[in-house]
Amino acid sequence: MLERRDDPRFAAISTPSEHALRLLDQVLADNPEPRIAEVGIGIGATTIEFCRRLDGHGEISLYDFAEKLDDLSKDLTAEGITNFQTYGNTRRTFDSYCWALAKVVQDMRRAKEDGIYDFIYLDGCHMFHHDAPATLLCKELVKPGGILLMDDYDWSIAVSPTMRPSVMPDITKHYTDDQIETAHVALICDLFLDSDPEFEILDIGYRGREHRRAYRRTPAPA
């Protein structure tokens, strides 16, 4: 999978997220053995850099389609990387990474843990019907003091180079005009994160239009 980073067809996702890497560096400064998660791997451009920064320490959990994770696992193993776990889903209509996240939350609750990840990078399909439940689950999975990074904050179907109605006319059969024009991740953040007193927005350098938004789960009082 990693060879796709040199394929012009994947140019938009061939560069690792600098915000995600900088936030991981912050986490590593406080905890050299963090447990982190990436929800939606793209072609692995950010994943491989996460793994290099971890340098065999801690653990990374990866959530995406099972066949994508199988391909990436081979690449990571070939580089000598072993500190990762994969949680794959099928391409059936109502299956997604949300189901895998839900099962992990269920296990976490049974173990009476208050979060298991020090950092979660949610870079999924950026559609409300998938990423609203994913966000609610990630809010539980991130530890107090941990960081949740939401990608594609400003994305909408209307601006998508591959999904906008002028390119994919059938999209209007599945989404209303309002759903096409609305930035779904921004809506999710407004509904479930911005007003939650347990989460604070982190300054990651934007001074204008945001493409990503980061949050820290506030630590419990001493």
From TrEMBL:
InterPro entries (alphabetical): SAM-dependent_MTases_sf
Pfam families in the record: Methyltransf_24
Gene3D superfamilies per UniProt: Vaccinia Virus protein VP39
Name of the protein this chain belongs to: Methyltransferase domain-containing protein
Organism: Acuticoccus sediminis
Upper lineage: Bacteria, Pseudomonadati, Pseudomonadota, Alphaproteobacteria, Hyphomicrobiales
